[in-house]
Amino acid sequence: MRIAVTRGISPAIGHCQLTHLEREPIDDEVARAQHGTYERVLRDLGCQVEHLAEEPDLPDSVFVEDIAVVLDEVAIITRPGAESRRGERSSIRRALEPHRRLEHIRAPGILDGGDVLVVQKDIYVGLSTRSDDEAVRQLKLLVADLGYTVTGVEVRGCLHLKSAVTAVSEDTLLINPDWIDATYLPGHAFIQVDPAEPSAANVVRVGDTVLFAADFPRTGERISAAGFRTLPVDASELAKAEGALTCCSLIFEAPDRNA
Ligand code: CIR
Fold first, then answer.
1. For 95-151, how does the pLDDT look when each residue is reduced to its tens digit (9 = 90+)?
2. Considering only CA atoms, which of 36, 3, 4 is closest in space to residue 238?
3. Ligand 1 atom closest to 246 (CA)
4. Are 64 and 7 in contact (CB under 8 A)?
5. Ligand 1: which atom is nearest the Cα of residue 162?
6. Which CATH number fits domain 2-253: 3.30.230.30, 3.40.1160.10, 3.75.10.10, 3.40.50.12500?
7. pLDDT, tens digit, 9 for 90 and up, residues 68-77
8. Ligand 1 cavity residues, CB under 6 Å
9. Rounded to the nearest 10 degrees, how much is the dihedral formed by the CA atoms of 20, 186, 80, 110?
């Protein structure tokens, strides 16, 4: 069974962190409706959605992806790069505890889950304003015995590594080559975002289906043309908070109790 951890949108979302965007008003109702649709799509695709309660004092807490890296064997609770987001950890810890052994990134390391791209046994970590070499060093130690390789990669012009590249399948990556150098990701096939849609590289893969942001239809067409099953999801309102599709969920396989 596949689990998707999500969280309701904080009423304080208007005070979210912004790095590359100017602040503009976020329509609460629209944002909630779009987020509800996102959760419904995940359910329709077979995920059991575990919806966590809103956090009134934590503006960015809907973006649960940043708070953990969930591997098959272990979940690593991050130490978010933005201090205002560190209070998001206790509830994520409680949510993941029944499903995984937990480890933690510790001070002075900083890591946002949005900077961590896992492709089979390769873990790429964006060295951004939110994640650093010290976190890469700690992550390496935490997964050393599990057969993963961890590589720090430079990103430019965007918030997180997964703003620049995500996986559409086990071996194919969707990439904006202006934000990351593809040579950091050897051994993969690439689909490039449409040049008119620089923010389109962030897609969510659930089984064989690739969810892409409805604002980026040209990139959606490129993914379909490459042979993948696609589904557009409207995420325009939370995009004003610099959140994309992957940010709003932590998706992982439930542990096999009989194993
Ligand atoms: C932040 O700056 O932390 C939030 N406003 C947006 C986080 C988006 N998360 C992600 O891309 N994984």
1. 999 999 999 999 999 999 999 999 999 999 999 999 999 999 999 999 999 999 999
2. 36
3. 12
4. yes
5. 11
6. 3.75.10.10
7. 999 999 999 9
8. 16-17, 19, 60, 63, 65-66, 82, 85, 114, 159-160, 241-244, 247
9. -110
